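REQUEST FORM: STRUCTURE PREDICTION
Request ID: SP-0412
Submitted by: Lab K.M.
Chain count: 1
Length (residues): 84
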Amino acid sequence: MDERTRDLLVFAAIGIVAGFFASFVVGGHGLIRYLVTGIIGAFVGGYLFKALGINLGIGNAFVSQVVTAAIGAIIIVLLARLIA
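STATUS: Completed
RESULT:
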């Protein structure tokens, strides 16, 4: 397996885990929904944390990325519900 394929699989895993955790807070179900909200949440959470200068202080990079993506996914789902 080359590095690019591995990176995509890790990115998908982060998205699925983050979407799953976000579903506990805001509801929802389904693997595809977890993946989509988690991936979008990763971008949103990463952007917001960087723009606001927030550092979670978590030593494990994978866990930090999952938490950031989950927070971003929660924000996305809440905003979507406000708009709808």
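NOTES: The mean pLDDT is 87.
Reviewed by: T.R.
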